[in-house]
Amino acid sequence: KMRMKRLLEILLVVATMALLAGCVIGHDVDTSEEVELRVRAVMTQRTRTAPSVADIPAEEESELSTTFPSDMELGLWAFSLPRDRQRAIFYPDAEPFATNEKFSHSEESGLWYPTKGLGWLYPQSLTLIGYAPYDLEVEYSHKHGLVLRDYDTANQSEVVDVLYTDYISDLHAEKHTKFVDVPFRHALTKVDMKAYTTLPDDYRYTIHKIYFEEVATRGTFYSQPSSEWILEEELNELVIYDSEEGCVLVANESIAIEGAEGVVLPQQVSGCIVVDVEVLHAGFASRLSFRTQPLKTIWEEGRYYTYTLSFTLDGVSIKEPSEKFE
Questions:
Q1: Which residues of 80-100 are buried (b: 16+ CB within 10 A; e: fewer)?
Q2: pLDDT for the residue 31
Q3: Out of 57-61, 105-109, 283-287, 310-314, least confident range
Q4: How many CA atoms lie within 13 A of 304 on its CB side?
Q5: Is residue 130 within 8 Å of residue 114, measured between CB atoms?
Q6: Can you tell me the distance from the alpha carbon of 114 to that of 35, in angstroms, rounded to the nearest whole number?
């Protein structure tokens, strides 16, 4: 009798839970209602990688911010399934709900809205995937997810930071009546430069140009099943600093070289860094090119690498990023 009573109690609890779950859709909510699909875009933080903690600037707000740029438009694909199915299991049954739809920011709400309204019915389960900025020529395929073909980073003045999302799966309208959080990741790598010199005070070095030798500057990006860049085999020079005015080095001081930064393709780097400098000594000026030792860095997606150029009378060496700091 005790076992039978216990069994009846369990069955009663299960039945009650099922009834309450059904009420969410069956009684309290009109299943013909629509929710406007709108998103809150957020950006994952880059991890700074440098020779030492001292090489990481204190002011990280602008470069490592998780705030998504409000002037950036997004592109989203969305797929719909009945709410009792999951994308991972029933993906072939998914119906397109939005195809490369453009979302723009609203200053009033702080959210991103589609160019045309997208009514999301309560019985629908949605899966989203997206990228930014919207003017990139991104495609979508079931096999590779988001695809960005032949992206060229050779001209750094024209390169934008490519952002993308993973699948955001099995979203239900009644849980997202206000917005859907859409976290974006960095598909590219960022690098910048610092300089240090132990030169005597009667020497003045002015840096005019910095470039990497033998790096891949063009590649195709796939976001699924895991993010990957397929790089072209041809290696090129990649200029990240070119200034006629230049950057004057100060003896025994470590300085950030303003403007010496780039957004690059993830890859193993084994070439040298070449630095063009003007040397002023005893009233005479000369232009010289210095080459560092070969690099051993692996540029990983979403990382931020700081290199330090160290100048002496014998030339220049490089302190490579070796540790990772949040």
A1: bbebeeebeeeeeebeebbee
A2: 53
A3: 57-61
A4: 19
A5: no
A6: 13
Rounded to an integer, what distance in angstroms lies between the CA atom of residue 155 and that of residue 218?
11
End-to-end distance of the chain based on CA atoms, in angstroms? Answer: 61
Q: Quick one: average pLDDT of 33-58?
A: 68
The half-sphere exposure of 20 on its side-chain side, counting CA atoms within 13 A, is 6
Contact status, residue 52 vs residue 307, Cβ threshold 8 Å: no
| Dihedral angle of Cα 105, 110, 116, 119, to the nearest 10 degrees | 150
For the record, the structure tokens of 230 come out as 């397929």
For residue 171, give the nearest of 86, 105, 109 by alpha carbon: 86
**DSSP classification of residue 54:** G
Q: What is the pLDDT of residue 92?
A: 62
Q: Any idea which residue has 């880059």 for tokens?
A: 46
Instruction: Write b or e for each residue in 200-233: b if 16 or more Cβ atoms lie within 10 A of its Cβ, otherwise e.
Output: eeeebbbbbbbbbbebbbbbebbbbeebbbebee
Percent of the chain with pLDDT over 90: 52
Return the residue matching tokens 């700081």. 306
> And the tokens for 131?
């990228």
Report d(CA 226, CA 56) in Å as an integer. Answer: 30
For residues 101 and 88, what is the distance between their CA atoms, to the nearest angstrom?
Answer: 22
